[in-house]
Amino acid sequence: MSNTELLSDQATQKVDDLSCSITENVIVSSDQQESALINSQSNSCCKDMSNVDSQVIESKAEADIKPSEDNDFHLIKWIDFNFEYLPILLQNVNGPCPLLAIFNILLLRKRIILDPNRDAISTERVITLLAEHILEHDQSKLSEEDRINYEHNVQDALAVLDKLKTGLDVNLKFDGVDKFEYTPECIIFDLLNIQLFHGWVIDPQDTELRTIVTTDAPSYNQLVEKMIRQRHSEREELVRESLLIEQFLDENRSQLTHYGILQLNQTMRDNQLAVFFRNNHFSTIWKNQVIKKNSLS
Q: Which domain holds residue 239?
């Protein structure tokens, strides 16, 4: 796992009074104002455990896990979660892994059940269980048109399952934590009723930058293209815009802004499990503002 800070420089001051508890590969952080993701390899804890009232849990591999030679197996770890003892899968290699982020949500929702006697599971078995879960959906109450659309979506989702092992083509937009450019791979999240979030959002108070971005470059890919295109322009205004874009990207290499953290907390529902995208990595997050057993969403 990368030791890159998950909190942006802009957010660090605000997050100083977060309360958090770090236990092996499960992270719990809390604050009355905002939810934030904390690096799972950190050995430090934040202050004041008495004010716990919102939590974000991120499932990641333990640092001392030795991946198998072919990286084809994931260790199973049982954790105390929402007053139950449930399994999650640990990551076996560095790099993006939407497969685990999605599969761990289904495990924590108890949509997929694993044998409690198993210590590990192969990647191919994970994909098979995920495919079986997708195909189990009851279509009997769907209209003919909805059934045809659903079956088409299922075929699209099954076609991208193998890509979940390494990464997905995701292009975030800067105007909201749930805003992404739609790609065929995104159908897997819709089909499984799993929401995808990010935290790289421009503060509305930064009107100049927000105007530059939202005018004709709302997504990351478009913004980078705009920066490169205008860098050597003969028009001073366009060169200045390019420099502002470059400064924004450089200052927010963590891909997480202060405003993005605030909006993430406001947007996520209480007790919601979701997938969080940052720096080409997919993680499982959970928001829980009340420490009691709730039904997961």
A: 207-251
Q: How far apart are CA 212 and CA 51, in angstroms?
A: 40
Same domain, 120 and 226: no
Same domain assignment for residues 117 and 240: no
Q: Which tens digit of pLDDT belongs to each residue from 13-49? A: 333 333 232 223 333 333 333 333 423 333 333 233 2
pTM of the model: 0.75
Residue 74 bears catalytic tag: no
For 117, phi then psi, to 5°, come to -90, -5
Question: Do 265 and 128 share a structural domain?
Answer: yes
| Structure confidence by residue, pLDDT tens digits, 213-271 | 888 779 999 999 999 999 999 999 999 999 999 999 999 999 999 999 999 999 999 99
In the annotation, is 97 catalytic? yes
Q: Are strands 196-197 and 273-278 parallel, antiparallel or unpaired?
A: parallel
Annotated catalytic residue: which of 20, 46, 97, 186?
97
